[in-house]
Please model this.
Amino acid sequence: MKSGDWHIVFLTMGASALAVAIALPFAIALSWLLARREWFGKSLVETLASLPLVMPPVAIGLLLLKLLGRNGPIGGWLHRSFEIDVVFTWKAVVIALAVMVFPLLVRSIRTAFEEIPSYLEEAGANLGRSPCKVFFLITIPLARRGISAGILLAFARALGEFGATVMVAGFIPGVTETLPLAIYRSVQTGDDSRALWLAGLSGLVAFAAIWLSSRLVGRSSRRSL
Model:
C-alpha cells in the first residue's frame, strides 16, 4: 500500500457522498411526481432519467465533456462568467457520479413513495395540513427506509464508477483519481498487489453499503405487510 492510497479512498468516498447529496433532492422531487401525479411527457422524462442505467458510461462521460468543457454551452458560460473550469477537476468527478447514480435514487425512492397508502396523505390534507407539510411530515417519514436504501445503493454504485469519470475528469493523481481509476492505473503499470488491495477495499465498502440497503428494504417490506 502506498502513502497516497488513503487519500484516494477518502477522495472517492467524499466525492461519492457529495454526488449522492446533490442528486438526492432532485431524485426525491422527480420520484414524487412519477409516483403521485399524471402529466404530459411523464413517460419521456422517466425514460430520460433512466438512460444512465443503460447507456455506456463512457458515452455519458462524453456527453458531459461536451456540455461542461470550455467550448460547451454550460462549461463555456461558467468560464466566461465566473472563470470556473469544471472538466478535469474534482467538480467533474462529483457531477459524473451524480449523473450516474441519479436513476438508482429515482427507482428506489419512487418505489418507496408508491408503497405509501394514499389515504394517509389524504388524511393529513383533511386535517388542514398544507401539501408541503403533508409531504415533509407524512410522506418523507413513511418513505425513509426506501430513501435510505436508495442512498446506500447509489453510494455503492458511485464507488465503482469508471467510464463517465475518466472521460470528464481524467487521471490526475491527488485531484481526480478515484478508486476505480487507481485500480486501472495500477494494473496498467504492473502493480498487481496494489490493484488487488484497492479492489478488495472498494469491494468491502460496496458490500457493506449493499448489505445495509438490503436490510432496510427487507424491513420496509415486512412493515408494509
User: Anything to note?
Assistant: The chain has a mean pLDDT of 90. The chain has one domain: 5-56+86-224. Residues 151 and 187 are 30 Å apart (CA to CA).
